[in-house]
Amino acid sequence: MGSDVVSRGYLATIVVPSGDQWKKMKRIMVDELFSHARHQWLHTKRVEEADNLLRYVHNQCGHEGGGGVVNLRVSAQHYCGNVIRKLVFNTRYFGNGKENGGPGVEEEDHVKAIFTILAYLYSFCISDYFPLLRGLDLDGHEKVMEEATRVLAKYHDPIIDERIQQWREGKKEEPEDLLDVLVSLKDDNGDSLLSADEIKAQIIDIMLAGVDNPSNALEWALAEMLNQPEILQKAIDELDSVVGKQRLVQESDLPKLNYIKACAREAFRLHPVAPFNVPHMSMADTTVANYFIPKGSHVFLSRLGLGRNPKVWDEPNKFKPERHLNGAKEVVLTDPKLRLLSFSRGRRGCIGMVLGTSMTIMLFARLLQGFSWSIPPNEGGRIDLSEGKGNLFMAKPLVAVAKPRLPPHVYPC
Ligand code: HEM
């Protein structure tokens, strides 16, 4: 990916990084924010948000726990937003939040801005190819991006500025979240390694990276499973045999939940969040298989072309988690052979793979363990699996009836 393509990437929403800046930020991401040790350090915060997800859905089941209609898109996006906000800012809410554990107006606004930026990140923009047109905003993208970035900045910047001040004044000495980690990094001279603008850009990058993939996978997978109840039952049977009903599923259980992981992997294969991977650019003439790719070409990997390739996948349009089980001791969400594109691979591959995997599987496992799901009576016995116009989300957000299936004392109060 070259610098001009980088400029369409997440970081460009505030600053366009130079090559050195990009390398520095990437190193910080890999070594400081998403290392194995850091993942362990942040465990309690992830558990708090998995518990809150359960509380939020449980609260929608009515006082007697008789069952309630739940919007899975809102629940899943809210959980992902919460996890990332908690890891970065040590808070679930920018405002007062809601007593039932759901999103307040601020969090709805925040997540909406994230999805707006992501939609435009992947879209064709004429000034990417004719930079002289920048500023004329012929397709209106710059205005939309500026507004969405302004929304993110409205919530992030006051927290970041205050935190920098606290560290400067010695009011903080021990890191408690990823923002503290970024603020407290020092260079060889003992000066701050990152400027305020760099921290703000890095945090937008993290916010954008973590929310869309897990929530979209959950929504599609559950919709497919509701239409094929035998798959739903197998996933529940697995949870009952690995975890039981007397305690909540924890991260330490996730490696054993192969069927659930196969369901998530199948959702990434069949229902990727976007048709293409983020754009890459060839830095030199190169040949891949039979294709000659001249230096400077923009390279788009088709997620749909890979995941639904009939030469690789039997019945490619069918949701069939079993296809990922054959012989695998432990199912993983990534595919090093790129037969499907989940986290991609190589130098540009996803840095947040471990976090992304645990968020995704926890989201699936908690919702499936905690509740019996059924199709709302007014849906005619089948969830409509149409894709949206101009995107790959479900055309209509998934709504399903949830009934608690664990003893009352197991749910977090
Ligand atoms: C299931 C969840 C996730 C999936 C499927 C996923 C997938 C991807 C993909 C496909 C890319 C582009 C790779 C390429 O250009 O070839 C990417 C990049 C990236 N992801 Fe993830 N991701 C997930 C979660 C996360 C999380 C939770 C974080 C961190 C908060 C994260 C951080 C990043 C970053 C920083 C990049 C940019 C890497 C670079 O350009 O060098 N991802 N991810």
Structure, explained:
This protein has 413 residues and is mainly alpha-helical. The protein has one domain (3-10, 22-410): Cytochrome p450 (Orthogonal Bundle). Helix content is 48%, strand content 6%. The chain has 14 helices and 7 strands. The protein has helices at 3-6, 19-33, 36-41, 43-59, 72-89, 105-121, 126-129, 141-168, 178-184, 196-227, 229-242, 258-270, 303-307, 353-370, and strands at residues 68-71, 280-281, 286-288, 291-293, 298-299, 371-374, 399-404. It has a 3-stranded antiparallel beta sheet with strand order 1-7-6. Strands 2-5 form a two-stranded antiparallel ribbon. Strand 3 (286-288) and strand 4 (291-293) form a beta hairpin. The termini are far apart. Bound molecules: protoporphyrin IX containing FE. Protoporphyrin IX containing FE (HEM) binds next to helix 2, helix 10 and helix 14.
Short recap of the structure:
48% of the residues lie in helices and 6% in strands.
Largest sheet: 3 strands, antiparallel
Arrangement of strands in the largest sheet: 1-7-6
Structural class category: mainly alpha
- Structure annotation, total helices: 14
Residue stretches low in confidence (pLDDT < 50, at least 5 long) are: 1-15
Number of strands: 7
CATH level-4 homologous superfamily: Cytochrome P450
Gross morphology: globular
**Helix residue percentage:** 40-55%
CATH architecture descriptor text:
Orthogonal Bundle
- Can you list the ligands bound to this structure? protoporphyrin IX containing FE
Using only CA atoms, what is the Rg? 22 Å
Number of domains: 1
How many angstroms does the end-to-end distance come to? 47 Å
CATH topology: Cytochrome p450
Average pLDDT level: 92
| Percentage of residues in DSSP E strands | 5-15%
